[in-house]
Each structure stands twice: as C-alpha cells, then as structure tokens.
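Reopening this ticket.

The earlier resolution said the output was attached, but the attachment link was broken on my side. Pasting everything inline this time so it's all in one place.
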Amino acid sequence: MGGPLPTMSDNVDLAGHLPFPGAIGARLRGNVMYVTGVAGLATYDISVPARPLPLGFLPLPHFENEDVSIGGNTLVISADTAVGVNYYGIVDISDPTLLTFRKVGPTGTDGHTASCVNPHPEPDPRNCRFALLAGGRGLRVMDTESGALVGDAVAPHAGETHDVQFDSAGYAWVAGYGGTAAYDVSEPTRPRLVAKTDATGSRGPLNDFLHHNSFRPDVAPGKPGNVVLITEEDYLNVACGGAGLFQSWRINGPLDPAKPAVLTNLDTWDTSEGTLPKPQDSTEAAYFCSSHYFEERKGLASVAWYGNGTRLLDVSNPRDIRQVGWFVPPNSEVWAAYWAPKDDSVIFVVDFKRGIDILRVRRGAPPGAGLPGRPAPPEGGPTSRPHPVYGWGCRLAA
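Inline output:
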C-alpha cells in the first residue's frame, strides 16, 4: 500500500477494500451488495464481508442514482441528467449474477432518486410495484411495470424533495430543500402527509441548503420510536467544520393524516465538534466536505462526510449526540456508510475516489488517540506493524 494511510480511531480497523472508482451508492441485502457507479450496477457476494467476490455487472453509464432501492426481485436506478434527460431503469435482480433490464424510460423533471414502496426482501411483486420519485416539487408515484406516473403529493414546505427512506412501519420519510416530512403510502398512488419538521427545518442553520436523507430508529424490532435522524447536505459551505449538520428530531404526536405531527429539533452535530489529531484534522480546510448518507444500528450512526471521512456517532441519547469513532482517508470523497446486514460491527463505506472501504468497529471501545497511519489487523489475524524504516516493503539483498 503506497501513499499516506487513513486516520482512524483506535476502535476502528480497515478490514478490507474493494477497488471501484466512481462508486456512488450501494444497497446491502442478505449476502449480496448492489453497488451503483458511473459505469453501471455491480453485485458482490459479501458472505465474508472483508473479501467481497464479484457476481454480476450491468453496464449503464449514469449519474447519479445516489440511493439504490430494492424491493423483492426489483431494483430501481434513477439517472439524474446523465444523458441530458432524467430516466429510470427497472432491473430484475432475481439472479444477482445475471442482471437484466425490465424497462427503461424517462421520468420527466423528477427522478433525482427513486425509492421502492414496501422495500422488503421477500420476492413479492407488491414490494416494488410502485416507486416514489423525488427531485421535483413534491413526490411522483411511478408504476414500475408500465413506467407510467400514476400519482403525486405536494411537499409541505417550499422547495424540491431529495430522497425517500422507509421506517419499519412502512411510512415514507421524505427529505428535501424545505425540510423533512412523512407520508402514509398504504395506498401508494395517494400518499398522505402525516408529519413534517417545524419552520426551523426549512431554513438555516438547520437547513442551509437541503435536508439530505433521514432514518427513524426502532425502539424494538419492527417498532419505530419518536425520533428521526437527519443529515443536512451543505456543500456550498466550504468550511469543513460547519458543512452539513447531523440532526436529531422528536416526533410530537401520532402520525395522523387528519392532523400531521410536527417535528422539533433535539440536537445537532458537525465535525467541528469532533476534531482529529492535528495535522490530520480537516475542519479548518476549505473544500468539498458536507455530510451525506448514513445509517443507524443499535444506537450507533455511521455518517458519510465527503472529504471528512466516516464518523461514528452515538445517538442513544438523541439530545446529546457524541462522536465515538472515525475513519478519514486522504484524498477521499465519501458518499455513504452502510452497516452490514448480518454484522453489527461491519460498515461498508462508499467512496467516489477510493471505492469501497470495509471497516470493522469495536462497539463500546473508546476511540483513543486515533493516531494517523495506524495499520489495520488482517481479518481474523494478529495485528501487524510496518518496519520503522522499510514500512511494508522488503529490503533487497545487496
């Protein structure tokens, strides 16, 4: 391995790496990872997380399909102005080694992201019979069999929508320029508003550019609680320390279309609150460094921060968000950080410049000093250290 090594906290190890230049987003289900990038869609066997094995590839040059969406045996790709027009691709993933198109067509002015309604793993055609398109002045509902637009909903605040995530109760949480809102999509062609952020969610400092995506954690399996986590994308802010807030919001009241609940902010966090050992700290730098996609697992959020790496945030107390780990590679552009489906200690990091980094996290362990260039132990093996003079190379005989 040549060049500078990543800066990582003592409770994080780099367990593996998958070269994939131009990686944009991913979805992990079971033992398969679906990765979308500028060249197309690739699938990998991740039954051994640190050693992904290639399964299939479907060429489809596009940008940007940030959030891969799956329902049953259907995957939806939304290409955003890649060829001068927004278009979708409905992909059959019943065989991950043989990916095939069911349908391709235009989405009109919408289609920054496309999200399957009822995105559950069972191969039931109802799982992705409909998809929600975000990127316009509200939501558009697409029939994935015909490609026709069959419904819509107006966003509760001014501004465009950005992306949709579903909680375990099936509510669609929609983030965007005007804040974050939730919809009842039990009738997919007629989304009904059931919650929205208060007025502070539609302006700075909580929304200087847009609410990017959200996650509503469960308090028990299949039972979501009254807290919603949200990232704010703010790449227009060139100060790395303040570029994009990670936020926690409380849902006040039931999710009722007759009287939508109002969300109020509980806490925020940005990388200026979790500075790293100098000179590795980049919070004072002026470059592309906003927060982006994240996931929460058992009180720990893995948050992508573009040029400021992956941050692990303890959100068990949503009124006091704390950083408890980090992984910051040099010359990186981190778009997403996803937990492995079957392992609460493994994170797959989608890096547009580097590819896929696979991290192993020791939950509950202190972050420590996090010295730069600390080498990672091999998967399942003892910790190794570079020679103080020759590094990882071998000295040649004279």
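Reporter confirms the inline version is readable. DSSP finds no helices and 31 strands in the chain. The mean pLDDT is 85.
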